[in-house]
Backbone:
């Protein structure tokens, strides 16, 4: 069988060369199309359901949020497992699907079931889906270098300007902010004054909510003009909160400033982000979507950051905390270096032992074709180019070289035996 294939290839050399050229061209096309990453994605095919109910204990979260969600998400097709986790003020439900399930189909089915489970949760508690990224989707971290701004101002700049700009980059699932302080109005109530005026904390909360709202009315016409009636009641500063009327005491209006104080502060933090032990910083984590090219997404993020940096306040710059593209480039360069080293070493060995440059060319040609064919199969089976797959290709180069040397040596042996028989029996040649 092998002899017939060799004979067929020798009789149709042009066809073989065209097939080899086409295979190499398609392999080069697959290299550009195949996603490149440094870390192989071995995470499970999962959808995360996140629910926040601040101020509640883990047991309350477990009983009133996590358990109803887990019990109602059962029965979705192609589910392998469901895991629930409850902590202070937060609930996480991990819905694990089969590996061959389309992730966006899975997210749609989970969202459909959440619409039904919503009625079982406490009032005001709304579950939401996590980003459509994997466990290795954290491809880029950055922080701000802003010596003239405090941590609260940096966090506001990150949340209301930088984050929105970077989320529009193709392939980005989420930009998660970290560090700094989230500004908030804090009411410090004096319990003695609260008791003296006969108010409760719920009265104070309801009054603050009711006085932080815009309302709309109908329109009326006057002198050929139409006017829209609006009630503007959104809080703009601390004074607006301090002047909120809670009620009256012996005919005298009682305002919020009469029972406590209002101050600007930071929200409760569960951790900080420190850069090189030099102090706290504010920044963001870029999460990549499923099946995206990490190298392409990181390049697009850097280009967008250059545009965003032009609109930042004076003295504010971006600094990179983690960049996976560096590892990706090093992995690709390692494979290229291995390929070049093998080609040079094989050329030297063949030329020294055989003194025949055409034999060296035969071995060298099959190296890039074999590597290109490997990327065709990576693209065919949906496997990204990462450290594991690229290392496998680098190791396979040695096997390809050994195979080429054995084939060339075997061809020389047969040619030598044929020449020897011809010299020994010139009449039968």
Residues:
């Amino acid at each position: 069988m092998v002899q017939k294939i060799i004979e067929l290839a020798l009789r149709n050399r042009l066809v073989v060369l065209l097939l080899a050229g086409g295979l190499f061209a398609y392999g080069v096309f697959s290299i550009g199309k195949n996603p490149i990453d440094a870390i192989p994605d071995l995470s499970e095919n999962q959808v995360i359901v996140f629910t926040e109910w601040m101020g509640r204990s883990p047991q309350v979260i477990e009983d009133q949020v996590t358990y109803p969600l887990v019990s109602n998400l059962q029965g979705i097709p192609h589910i392998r497992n469901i895991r629930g986790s409850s902590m202070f003020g937060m609930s996480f439900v991990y819905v694990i699907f089969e590996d061959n399930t389309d992730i966006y189909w899975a997210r749609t089915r989970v969202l459909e079931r959440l619409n039904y489970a919503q009625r079982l949760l406490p009032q005001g508690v709304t579950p939401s889906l996590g980003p459509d990224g994997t466990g290795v989707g954290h491809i880029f971290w950055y922080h701000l270098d802003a010596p003239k701004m405090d941590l609260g101002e940096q966090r506001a700049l990150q949340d209301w300007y930088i984050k929105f700009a970077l989320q529009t980059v193709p392939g980005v699932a989420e930009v998660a902010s970290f560090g700094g302080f989230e500004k908030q109005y804090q009411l410090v109530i004096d319990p003695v004054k609260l008791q003296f005026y006969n108010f409760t904390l719920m009265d104070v909360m309801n009054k603050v909510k009711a006085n932080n709202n815009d309302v709309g009315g109908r329109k009326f016409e006057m002198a050929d003009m139409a006017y829209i009636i609006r009630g503007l009641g959104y809080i703009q500063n601390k004074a607006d909160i301090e002047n909120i009327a809670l009620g009256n005491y012996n005919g005298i209006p009682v305002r919020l400033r009469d029972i406590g104080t209002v101050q600007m502060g930071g929200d409760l933090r569960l951790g900080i982000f420190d850069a090189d032990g030099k102090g706290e910083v504010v920044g963001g984590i870029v999460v990549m979507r499923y099946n995206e090219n990490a190298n392409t997404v990181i390049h697009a993020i850097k280009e967008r950051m250059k545009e965003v940096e032009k609109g930042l306040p004076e003295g504010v710059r971006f600094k990179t905390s983690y960049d996976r593209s560096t590892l990706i480039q090093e992995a690709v360069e390692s494979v290229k270096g291995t390929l070049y080293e093998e080609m040079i070493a094989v050329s030297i060995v063949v030329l020294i032992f055989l003194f025949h440059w055409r034999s060296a060319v035969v071995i060298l040609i099959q190296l890039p074709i074999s590597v290109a064919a490997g990327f065709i199969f990576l693209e065919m089976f949906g496997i990204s180019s990462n450290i594991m797959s690229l290392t496998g290709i680098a190791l396979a180069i040695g096997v390809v070289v050994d195979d080429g040397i054995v084939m060339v040596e075997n061809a020389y042996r047969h040619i030598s035996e044929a020449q020897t028989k011809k010299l020994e029996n010139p009449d039968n040649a």
About this structure: The longest strand covers residues 79-87.
